[in-house]
Design goal:
185 residues; 8 strands; 6 helices; single chain
């Protein structure tokens, strides 16, 4: 089953996507904008990751395609806690030329709809580097409430960075789509 948005489709990761994903992981400019730590990833490592994680129901990863079938990024629901009905939400758009055209918003709205309406989760957590203003604005636009900040929490590029912590509840999402009529044509 593919998950359809207005501008994007979220679909399962296939072996043919591994090189695309590896390229994103090895893009130092992109990795400097996201939380977590990065190591250079080889083809072999990427293939092993795929084999070990493709069946993991607590970490769902999707390829983001535009409506023409071009792969433009990756979306994920990670650390799914089925008892407490929560997960961490994230996306990466690979090509700078497509940013600012609504693909990120649509990917997040599509992923959030799937999490709340299909998986019946109640909360999605978000973690953003404080310097990543674009991601902050996108998170707030898509219903996230910034709930706190961890000071000097993430070490990248030789220095510590603050980490913003946010979340969106299912009830927040319902209010957002009522307000902005996102899914109405």
């Amino acid at each position: 089953m593919n998950i359809e948005g207005k501008l994007v489709t979220l679909r399962a990761i296939e072996k043919e996507d591994l090189e695309f994903m590896r390229t994103m992981l090895n893009d130092s400019e992109m990795e400097n904008l996201v939380v977590g730590w990065a190591f250079p990833v080889s083809k072999y490592q990427q293939e092993k990751w795929y084999e070990n994680n493709i069946q993991n129901q607590n970490n769902l990863r999707f390829i983001i395609e535009d409506k023409f079938g071009e792969v433009i990024g990756q979306a994920n629901l990670s650390n799914i806690d089925w008892k407490n009905r929560k997960a961490t939400r994230g996306i990466k758009l690979a090509k700078e030329k497509i940013r600012g055209k609504g693909f990120g918003t649509d990917a997040i709205m599509t992923l959030t709809k799937y999490a709340f309406e299909e998986l019946q989760l109640n909360r999605l957590d978000i973690f953003i580097l404080e310097e990543n203003i674009v991601s902050q604005k996108l998170a707030i636009k898509t219903g996230v409430v910034i709930e706190g900040k961890k000071r000097n929490c993430i070490f990248k590029n030789g220095k510590y960075h603050n980490l913003l912590i946010g979340g969106i509840l299912k009830s927040d999402y319902k209010k957002l789509i009522e307000k902005n009529n996102y899914w109405k044509d």
